[in-house]
Amino acid sequence: EDIKNRNNTYQIHRRGAIEVTMSLAKDGNHNNNGEQGRCSHFLVVAYGIQGHINPARTLARRLAQIGGCTATLSVPLSDHRRMFPSHENSCEEVSDGLISYIPFSDGRDDGSWPMDSEDRVQRHKANLRSLSAVVNGLAASGRLVTCMVCTLSMTVVVEVAREHQLPFVVYWIQPATILATYYHYFHGHEKLIVQHDTNPTYEVNLPGLHPLRICDMPTFFTEKTQSYLSKMVLQALRELFEQMHQEKSIVVLVNTFDALEDVALKAMQPYMDVFAVGPAVPPLGALQHKNENEAQIHLFKHDEKNCMEWLNAQLEKSVIYLSFGSLLSYTKRQAEEILHGLQDHGQPYLWVVRKEGRAEEVDFCIREANAGKGMVVEWCDQQKVLSHPSIGCFVTHCGWNSTLEAIMSGVPMLAVPSWSDQPMNAFLVEKEWRVGIRAERDEEGVLTRGELARCLDLLMGGSEKAMQIRANANRLKERAHQAVASDGPLETSLQNFIKSMQNLNRTNQENKRLA
Ligand SMILES: O=c1ccn([C@@H]2O[C@H](COP(=O)(O)OP(=O)(O)O[C@H]3O[C@H](CO)[C@@H](O)[C@H](O)[C@H]3O)[C@@H](O)[C@H]2O)c(=O)[nH]1
To answer: Which has more pLDDT, 86 or 507?
Structure first.
């Protein structure tokens, strides 16, 4: 009767993720008040974009590799379908032999984005119902969730965790320095930052951090005319920090490592329990699995075979790799400037041009670039590309995943940041770690052909500065590999985190028993 009632309640989602969780549920009223057992089961919920799903998946897999732990990754249904194309139009649970993947319906099963704040509220409600059903479904199938983990902008996870009396943990998938700037922005420093927003080089002193320039702060702080998207992101983060503030103890996992951001990690310790669990870059080949499902996990169609063959034919460290991540697209002028800058520089290049929405505008570039010394692909296995010996440098927008992947491969970066955390990431690349240089954009925000060619000449050349950058990149690569080595800092940090979660669960149960 209980299942029937709940099916009625959720019948609007008949083709949605709810069906999976309902079919998992063998009986009703599951909550997490009972004895938790000794096994920890993490439900990792990721926002539906590649920059969130990649690190969330790596974290879930790493947690599941620690004795006594299991993990489930939950992503929005439309993204789940893109990850598992052979399951198209289905919302089934999938396993890769290590973790399970269970989709939830975020109210945009067709892949569309919220149109306005009312739409956002409706979708938030859909999120709530669907994620709650995932937790119930897992409990009903004997896999009681013991902790919920969410990537940024996922306040809904906090609400579901509270409903089920589960601890929740934020997985901060950007640098610890950015975590610190947001924390202080929302805790008393907003006015100080906003009041200097007309002076981009003004340096702000935030507790425990080196002075940071206004222009390197998250762009949402100072944007003069904020877009709907920027407002939405800032609001979601504000809500997340408010929710965290209501907790007795705040636990945050950060996709970074000590050797990279020692100062920022320490600066956050007085305010929260921070665990450095990065870099979330899986070892090469780790994702090629015998399991058929595993082989199919991707969000975009790769042009891989062709591009790896092409790279094999190039000289060592001769190729410029360009990619601006999974969200940004090029205007016609920007694409033209890049094309001509590359042609002027003269080295071979591999360029990712996602055509989404701008197909005709950039088509001419693709034709011309492919006819010349370069190769243009719509998507590639970036990590594999960056690890290829022919890659000499990476022209990047400095998305945090791309930055970490370049560090893991020891590839020098030409930073061309655009928005959000990217200016700060570019600052860290150029000034803190000295593993790259930063290009200037013109007054229209375009990277011009002259500036691109100038920067490439410098980065790929034989000057002392270029050699120093290459040496720094190799050193940082070693530190990154030490961080992820067996029994290294990452493993220790994950184990400490798991222990602290188990203690928290025990204390909660004890308190409930006494109450
Ligand atoms: O052809 C490609 C291009 C990209 N990628 C992968 O896509 C991911 C892209 O992530 P990221 O570099 O972080 O860029 P965005 O997709 O732009 O990420 C968004 O999310 C990040 C994490 O919050 C932020 O740091 C960025 O500013 C924000 O734009 C990386 O893992 C890349 O390896 C590929 O596999 N193939």
So the answer is: 507
- Does residue 52 carry a catalytic annotation? yes
Q: Which of 402, 403, 416, 427 should be mutated for ligand 1, with most atoms under 8 A from CB?
A: 402
pLDDT band at 90 (very low <50, low <70, confident <90, very high): low
Say whether 417 sits in a helix, a strand or coil.
coil
Is residue 473 classed as helix, strand or coil in its secondary structure? helix
3-class state of residue 236 by DSSP: helix
Token pair 């002028």: residue: 333
Beta strands in 412-498 (DSSP E): 413-415, 436-438
Residue nearest to atom 8 of ligand 1 (CA): 51
Per-chain mean pLDDT for the chain? 85
Q: How far is the CA of 296 from the centre of ligand 1 (A)?
A: 19
Give 170's Cβ-side CA count (13 Å radius): 30
Q: 220: which DSSP letter?
A: G
Q: Which residues have C-beta within 8 Å of that of residue 5, sequence separation ≥ 6?
A: none
In whole angstroms, give the CA distance from residue 140 to residue 155: 25
Q: Provide the residue type at 305 as one letter.
A: K
Residues 193, 458: Cα–Cα separation, whole Å: 34
Residue 389, preceding peptide bond in cis (omega within 30° of 0): no
Is the complex ipTM more than 0.95? yes
Q: What φ, ψ does residue 201 adopt, rounded to 5°?
A: -95, 0
> How do strand 374-377 and strand 349-352 relate by DSSP bridges?
parallel
CA angle 327, 116, 148 (to 5 degrees): 65
How do strand 203-204 and strand 212-213 relate by DSSP bridges? Answer: antiparallel
Question: How many C-beta atoms surround the C-beta of residue 262 within 10 A?
Answer: 13
Give the distance (Å) from ligand 1 centre to CA of residue 51.
4
C-alpha 9 to ligand 1 mean position (Å): 37
Q: How would you classify the pairing of strands 100-101 and 94-95?
A: antiparallel
What length does the chain have? 515
Backbone angles phi, psi at 73, to 5 degrees: -105, 130
What tokens appear for 431 in the block? 């000034």
Tokens at residue 118, please? 């009312």
Query: How far is it, in rounded angstroms, from Cα 76 to Cα 79?
Result: 6
How many angstroms separate the CA atoms of 489 and 119, rounded? 43
pLDDT above 70: percentage of residues in the chain: 85
Q: CA-CA-CA-CA torsion for 338, 113, 6, 134, nearest 10 degrees?
A: 30
Counting Cα atoms < 13 Å in the Cβ hemisphere of 50 gives 18
pLDDT band at 1 (very low <50, low <70, confident <90, very high): very low
User: Residues 69, 40: contact at Cβ < 8 Å?
Assistant: yes
Residue located via tokens 């940082």: 476
Q: What angle (nearest 5°) sits at the alpha carbon of residue 406, between those of residues 339 and 210?
A: 110
| Dihedral over Cα of 305, 306, 307, 310: its sign | positive
Which entry of 13, 30, 41, 52 is annotated as an active-site residue? 52
